[in-house]
Amino acid sequence: MLALMGFLMVIVFMYLIMSKRLSAMTALMLVPLAFGIILGFGPDLGAMSLDGIKKVAPTGIMICFAILYFGVMIDAGLFDPLINKILKAAKGDPLKVIVGTAVLAGIVSLDGDGSTTYMITCSAMLAIHRRLGIHPMVLPAMAIMQNGVMNILPWGGPTGRVMSALNLEAADVFVPLIPAMIAGTIWVLFVAYRIGLKERARLGTLQMQDVIAETATAVVDIEAQKLKRPHLFWVNLSITVILMAALVREVLPLNVLFMIGTSLVLIINYPKIKDQQARIATHAANALPVIAMVFAAGIFMGIMSGTKMVDAMAGSLVSVIPSSMGPHLALITALASLPFTFFLTNDAFYFGVVPVLVKTAATYGITPAEIARASLIGQGAHLLSPLVASTYLLVGLNGVEFGDFQKYTLLWAIGTSLVMLAFSLAIGIIPF
Fold first, then answer.
1. How far apart are CA 302 and CA 41, in angstroms?
2. What angle do CA 140, 141, 147 make, to 5 degrees?
3. What is the pLDDT of residue 218?
4. CA-closest candidate to residue 106, choices 153, 160, 143
5. What is the structure's pLDDT at 211?
6. ∠4-348-339 over CA atoms, to 5°?
7. How confident is residue 314, by pLDDT bands cut at 50, 70 and 90?
8. pLDDT of the residue at 254
9. Which of 47, 102, 153, 331 keeps 20 to 30 A from 109, CA to CA?
């Protein structure tokens, strides 16, 4: 019953946001509360919700100060030289801009953190996409698809979980998957090229539109120019590089790093308290909806976990695999990782489902490392799950609806996983 209600809850949630009957934020809170009451957990829902909120609180804090940090950096003009160079290289060509966006997202994703990838990629590229009139879904699609591939890095999260759950090393799990990740990246660039061709056909090279856009935003640019701090470019760049290095090395928790960084760049770039307050007020409008979404997701996950719906869903999914398919369990795991990691959290899948699959696979001579690699294939589409907090940051930064974004990107993202799976089967790192 719990498993059935869990799947039904996710389906109802997806239907409500995709049909735009409810916003993602309200659906994340109201749907699990309704199902929790139906299941008889009413008195405990408050504690479950609070537990979920506590778990996502560090992410919410990080997103808040990261948006403020990069917002201040945009105001100060840190990304202006990069934007100008990309515009010059692209020469008004949407195809080059879109492919460049995918490449940039891949480079930034090396730090293994989705939120950072989205903030840096969007900070650098959003103005270019808007100036050229590129479809608003393209930038977040490129960012999340490329980050889905790079999410397999050992420090990205899922790989660390599965290595921990199965007591494996990176050499057993990650290193063999590198060729598949390269294949996945090539697929993302191919998608970028295809979309770029369509956008080029629709928009042309847009030299004339650039002039129109510059004229239309002249008044805004005058106000924005007052906030630029070109004389502090190297100072701001140094702080940002140090911040990213500290992030990769995990010198301090990510949220603490962004809190410290935001304080420093505000003081350095806008010494007057009045100016600091103005910058915070301006960017708070971008931060608040995203933070609210993250805490709403905490309620959703807290109730799913507290009611044991997640555990029941995991158990039921494993039980439907017939014994006759045992010799092909690695392939089944790879294919099943697509819906598993979409409807369940990474913790639920890698700590709950995968160990059960490993025990079953052992009777057919399939090693834990092979199951571990197969279980990571679904990461190509995982980030589009409503259970991934950083995705709400991405849609918030780009001003698009979550449901619309899923519909635009999901098939391409599933393609990423299938390409990685096909290549993995071809070279033998996942047995057929």
1. 12
2. 85
3. 39
4. 143
5. 38
6. 60
7. low
8. 75
9. 331
Structure tokens at 139: 């930038």
Is the per-residue pLDDT at 46 higher than 60?
yes
Cβ proximity of 92 and 132 under 8 Å: yes
- State the pLDDT at residue 221: 57
Confidence of residue 424 (pLDDT cuts 50, 70, 90): very high
- For the stretch 224-262, pLDDT in tens is 778 888 899 999 999 988 987 887 677 888 788 889 999
Q: From CA 310, how far away is CA 351, in angstroms rounded?
A: 12
Q: Residues 341, 346, 347, 352: is their CA dihedral positive or negative? A: positive
Question: What is the dihedral angle through the alpha carbons of 319, 360, 339, 117, rounded to the nearest 10 degrees?
Answer: 150
| Integer Cα distance of 1 and 101 in angstroms | 45
Query: What pLDDT does residue 83 have?
Result: 65
| Other CB atoms within 10 A of residue 328 CB | 16
For the chain, how far is it from start to end, CA to CA, in angstroms?
34
How many Å apart are CA 411 and CA 424, to the nearest integer? 20
Name the residue with higher pLDDT: 412 or 362.
412
Higher pLDDT, 254 or 95: 95
Q: Is the dihedral of CA 139, 141, 145, 150 positive or negative?
A: positive
Please enumerate, as own/partner, the contacts of 104-107 that have beta carbons within 8 Å and a separation of 24 or more: 105/142, 105/143, 105/146, 105/147, 106/146, 106/149, 106/150, 106/185, 106/188
User: According to the 3-state scheme, what is the secondary structure of the chain?
Assistant: CHHHHHHHHHHHHHHHHHCCCCCHHHHHHHHHHHHHHHCCCHHHHHHHHHHHHHHHHHHHHHHHHHHHHHHHHHHHCCCHHHHHHHHHHHCCCHHHHHHHHHHHHHHHHHHCCHHHHHHHHHHHHHHHHHHHCCCCCHHHHHHHHHHHHHCCCCCCCHHHHHHHHHCCCHHHHHHHHHHHHHHHHHHHHHHHHHHHHHHHHHHCCCHHHHHHHHHHCHHHHHHHHHHCCHHHHHHHHHHHHHHHHHHHHCCCCHHHHHHHHHHHHHHHHCCCHHHHHHHHHHHHHHHHHHHHHHHHHHHHHHHHHHCCHHHHHHHHHHHCCCHHHHHHHHHHHHHHHHHHHHHCCHHHHHHHHHHHHHHHHHCCCCCHHHHHHHHCCCHHHHCCCCCCHHHHHHHHHHCCCHHHHHHHHHHHHHHHHHHHHHHHHHHCCCCC
